[in-house]
Amino acid sequence: MERLRVLVTRRWPEEVERALADRFDVTLNETDEPLSQQRLAAAMDEFDILCPTVFDRIDADVIGGGDRVRLIANYGVGFDHIDLEAARAKNIAVTNTPGVLTDATADIAMTLLLMAARRAGEGERELRSGRWDGWRPTHLIGSALRGKVLGLVGFGRIGIATAMRAKHGFGMKIAYYARREADADIAAGLDAEFHPELSSLLAASDFVSLHVPGGEDTAGLIDAEAISAMKASAYLINTARGGVIDHEALADALSTGRIAGAGLDVYPQEPQIPAALLGLENVVLLPHLGSANSETRIAMGMKALANAEAFARGEALPDLIA
């Protein structure tokens, strides 16, 4: 029986690429260069399964490029880069890779929190440039974590995993804002305080960490008004989606001392970084490292593979989102 044709838009871990090649007629992106919108659109008429990443923009024009693709098996949990309505209109299934990124992303949230609080990025830049002239009592004073309030915007799996690290590892107090209160046992185990209003959480928090999905509902959620509700001594951490923050408003707040600092791993138009942030010392900027450990990246690929295999067998897709 003829094997289904699969296009993988970027390089995946070797173990996953080998597993895909064992089961499908796979075309790999050997150069690992981003594919153009025109190439992606043409692929819709050449392949049975498209395996994009969160970097690929699978919009209506791409989806309308052909009628052969029947499954978009996304490598990543976020899917705001895929036009789900256009996919539904053409009866194309869309899957993602939930559950396997939780610990890795929570680790990066804490990395950013620690780096921002302890001014680690500033310190490394000073040292590498040869500007460090020795220890002194008032040099690069940051913030302690113990006893400080970590306010989580969104309290799903990653938010809860971040809260566990902060509470049990660093002695922080936990508060959260979400559409509904968390399970009573989870909230009790973290002694987590629920805030039904975002402004209330922002005002109460020493550190604010974002853990909400992308999309129209959360676009610009942290705007100038929201930032104005934060403490002047507060730090903002984002490992969710770049579009959740108004970066011009954030840059203004950071440059004027309206808030103490920030740590970002995601941006609205990656790989471009908002220019207003690049010259600021009090923001830590990471290149979308949330899932970047080998175990997680392999697990993500295996999730995508499992969805492709289920599709090939005509079975229910384990991670169907549309």
From TrEMBL:
Domain of life: Bacteria
Keyword list, A-Z: NAD, Oxidoreductase
Top EC class of this enzyme: oxidoreductase
EC number of this enzyme: 1.1.1.29
One function term, GO molecular function aspect: NAD binding
A Pfam family reported for this protein in Swiss-Prot or TrEMBL: 2-Hacid_dh
PANTHER family: 2-HYDROXYACID DEHYDROGENASE-RELATED, GLYOXYLATE_HYDROXYPYRUVATE REDUCTASE B
Protein family according to the UniProt entry: Belongs to the D-isomer specific 2-hydroxyacid dehydrogenase family.
UniProt protein name: Glycerate dehydrogenase
UniProt source species: Croceibacterium atlanticum
